[in-house]
């Protein structure tokens, strides 16, 4: 048997099988249970699977402490009580808990933020296991990073144990909007590959996964809703937002009538587009769980962001393996987290402005972010920090426009990369060309110096001197430099084309050998 948990099959084939198993749960409800009796209630209600754990998220919040993997004996008891698939939670980064859960035979492993994270740097490498993994996400970047690590099923994180669905809605809408942006780039851009690669770098995800997502218009794996679903209406809402199914944790067994509410939520997921059925199943369910208002929750109590730390600069530069980068905690790539210090600096300034001009005048100026070239220039003198001469400001505005035009139309990023690559490939030719360019500037500098010093006849004298003495040198160096530069460019392009052709033929030969069974 293969040591990587693929039974001798390739990792891609093993992932296809695991993703296919997750597809079987589509359109279903997965319920959190803490004992065999609750598991039987969930199965009778029509649940597609159950999540076995010792405490539901609401109890984990209330009791506090460190939340760990459940007792294997309890999980085995639940597995023996039902015929539907049984999932179990493991702590983020705790690969030994995952090994134990795989050994006792659970059907799915949830690497869950509801439990206390065991590793604040790495997630589990899920390709090493035969069991499919479920992982949470708040946005497309998190989802695709988890899929790149081997997750066969994705769910929104929401805020588990609160009964407040607002965070699950926010996360689902974020994923949908980011997928729509990627799809728009693919369909409407003049150069979709370059823009998609830039978007992949922005999200910190593999380009191939992002392109596959853009082509499909959805995640490559099933995407369930989780975190705060407590009523049939909540479940139908998440389904109409595009989820493939629903996780329900504390919302069922912390309510007044667990059996009736479980059946109602299953019916709501099945008939989520029929308001009449939704109205019927929502009647007489008893008291729902009390819940917690997420908007009033302290930041430290939010499970979706819990347990992760910002990386140090040394940590980032030492981490050269791309797969290790993909395994980093998501808060290290979260734009909201990265902008938080700036927002905290701006808040006192806004309060001072509201309190009046006198306090604003007494306070120190708000520090500005450092920009090499500002986006706009104020030439009216109204800004308190603007002491720039209007003529200089106007020149800088024109210069900024010219640079933007050159950056967009004359020297776009891919052309700059090609020129730099060629220059690095031919350092001697590049040095010669730069020297030639400097020499070509000498006559122009002499002309300008003459114009500034004397003007009139002196300009003509200096110009003639420049043309007669340095003209032949300029022409010779220009022709030679352009010839050598063109020769070097042609050599580089032809060599690159031959290398690609060789690699392409070699790859085709390998594929042919695979098809022939070699």
Question: What do these coordinates show?
Answer:
By secondary structure, this protein is of the alpha/beta class. It folds into three domains: 298 residues, Aldolase class I (TIM Barrel, Alpha-Beta Barrel), CATH 3.20.20; 30 residues, no CATH class; 109 residues, no CATH class. The chain is built from 21 helices and eight strands. Strands 1-2-3-4-5-6-7-8 form an eight-stranded parallel β-barrel, surrounded by eight helices. The chain starts with 10 loop residues before the first helix and ends with a helix.
Task: Give a short synopsis of this structure.
57% of the residues lie in helices and 7% in strands. The chain has 518 residues and is an alpha/beta fold.
What's the domain count?
3
Largest sheet: 8 strands, parallel, barrel
Name of the CATH class of the largest domain: Alpha Beta
Low-pLDDT regions: 1-10, 307-327, 331-387, 510-518
Find the structural class using helix and strand composition: alpha/beta
CATH topological fold name of the largest domain: TIM Barrel
Q: Widest sheet: strand order?
A: 1-2-3-4-5-6-7-8
> What is the CATH homologous superfamily assignment of the largest domain?
Aldolase class I
Count the beta strands. Answer: 8
Give the end-to-end Cα distance, rounded to a whole number of Å. 22 Å
CATH architecture classification of the largest domain: Alpha-Beta Barrel
User: What would you call the quaternary organization?
Assistant: single chain
| Number of H/I helices | 21
Give the DSSP E fraction (strand runs of 2 or more residues): 5-15%
Order of helices and strands: HEHEHHEHEEHEHHHEHEHHHHHHHHHHH
* Helix residue percentage: 55-70%
Form type: elongated
Domain PdxS/SNZ N-terminal: 15-226
Keywords: Lyase, Membrane, Pyridoxal phosphate, Schiff base, Transmembrane, Transmembrane helix
Organism: Aspergillus fumigatiaffinis
Family: Belongs to the PdxS/SNZ family.
């Amino acid at each position: 048997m293969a040591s990587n948990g693929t039974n001798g099959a390739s990792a891609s084939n093993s992932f296809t099988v695991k993703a296919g198993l997750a597809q079987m749960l589509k359109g279903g409800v997965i319920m959190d249970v803490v004992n065999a009796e609750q598991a039987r209630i969930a199965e009778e209600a029509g649940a597609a699977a159950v999540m076995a754990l010792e405490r539901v998220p609401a109890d984990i919040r209330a009791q506090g402490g460190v939340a760990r993997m459940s007792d294997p004996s309890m999980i085995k008891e639940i597995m023996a009580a039902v015929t539907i698939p049984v999932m179990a939670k493991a702590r983020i980064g705790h690969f030994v808990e995952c090994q134990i859960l795989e050994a006792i035979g659970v059907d799915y492993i949830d690497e869950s933020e509801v439990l206390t994270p065991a590793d604040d740097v790495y997630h589990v490498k899920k390709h090493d296991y035969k069991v499919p993994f479920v992982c949470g996400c708040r946005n497309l970047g998190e989802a695709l990073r988890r899929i790149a690590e081997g997750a066969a099923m994705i769910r929104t994180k929401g805020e588990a144990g609160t009964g407040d669905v607002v965070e699950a809605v926010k996360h689902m809408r974020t994923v949908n909007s980011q997928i729509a942006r990627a799809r728009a780039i693919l369909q409407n851009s003049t150069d979709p590959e370059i823009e998609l690669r830039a978007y992949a770098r922005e999200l910190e995800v593999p380009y191939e996964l992002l392109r596959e997502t853009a082509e499909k218009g959805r995640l490559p794996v099933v995407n369930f809703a989780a975190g705060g679903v407590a009523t049939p209406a909540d479940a139908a809402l998440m389904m109409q937002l595009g989820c493939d199914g629903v996780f329900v944790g504390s919302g069922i067994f912390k309510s007044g009538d667990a059996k009736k509410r479980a059946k109602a939520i299953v019916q709501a997921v099945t008939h989520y587009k029929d308001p009449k059925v939704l109205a019927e199943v929502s009647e007489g369910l008893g008291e729902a769980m009390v819940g917690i208002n997420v908007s009033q929750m302290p930041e430290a109590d939010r499970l979706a962001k819990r347990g992760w730390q910002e990386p140090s600069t040394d940590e980032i530069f030492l981490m050269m393996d791309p797969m290790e980068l993909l395994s980093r905690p998501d808060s290290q790539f979260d734009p909201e987290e990265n902008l938080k210090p700036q927002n905290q600096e701006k808040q006192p300034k806004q309060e001072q402005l509201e309190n009046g001009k006198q306090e604003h005048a007494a306070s120190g100026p708000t520090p500005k972010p450092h920009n090499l070239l500002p986006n706009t220039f104020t030439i009216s003198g109204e800004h308190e920090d603007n002491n720039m001469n209007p003529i200089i400001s106007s020149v800088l505005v024109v210069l900024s426009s010219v640079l933007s035009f050159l950056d967009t139309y004359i020297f776009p990023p891919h052309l700059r990369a090609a020129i730099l690559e060629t220059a690095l490939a031919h350092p001697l030719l590049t040095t010669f060309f730069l020297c030639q360019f400097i020499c070509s500037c000498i006559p122009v500098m002499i002309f300008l110096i003459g114009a500034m010093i004397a003007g009139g006849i002196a300009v003509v004298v200096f110009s003639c001197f420049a043309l007669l003495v340095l003209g032949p040198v300029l022409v010779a160096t220009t022709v030679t430099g352009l010839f050598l530069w063109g020769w070097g460019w042609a050599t580089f392009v032809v060599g690159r084309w031959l290398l690609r052709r060789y690699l392409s033929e070699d790859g085709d030969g390998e594929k042919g050998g695979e098809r022939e069974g070699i």
